[in-house]
What we know:
Distance between the termini: 85 Å
Order of helices and strands: HHHEEHHEEEHEEHEE
Strand content: 25-35%
Strand order of the largest sheet: 2-1-5-4-3
Amino acid sequence: MDARTSAATPSAVERLAQLIEPGSLLEATPECLVVTAADGKILFANHRMEDLTGFAPDALLGQSVAMLLPAGLGGADQGARFEAACHHSGGTDFPVEVHLGAIEGPERLLVVTFRDASELQEGREARYEAEVKYRTLVEQIPAVVYLDPVNENEDDSTQLTTSEEFDLFVPSGRVHAQRFGDPRAPLVLCVG
């Protein structure tokens, strides 16, 4: 292809611009997004923002992105990804994952996408609560002793592990042993 042919052939971006209105791409994306000016004023919000935040796209136009993200963008750079609190029209805040992109042109624009992170946050909180409960339970057990095979090929090689000093509890407590599941599973001795 020579220079005359390539100059006459529109680029993929030019061709796309001829086929569709640029705003329709922003509406077609499954992401909740706003486009802001460099000063953080919202120039465009797609309809998915209303589903997420309760704010109609028209109500967001001209507003600061801080209306949605009370902490703002914090000077984050293009390509940044962070979690933040997003404001809902009902007055509550909820966790979102925010991604920033930029469109360079005569005027620099920021593309800010939002994903609801409520389920992710709930999962983290549930995991933390489960870990706390587990730690509390284990710390309340006077002693747990595990006999594990050191070498699986040698049945009589064992390793003794205990949550506290074994000899402090054996003389004064009762011992019971239990093997869970597979007969080759480690023998668990509980000292109480």
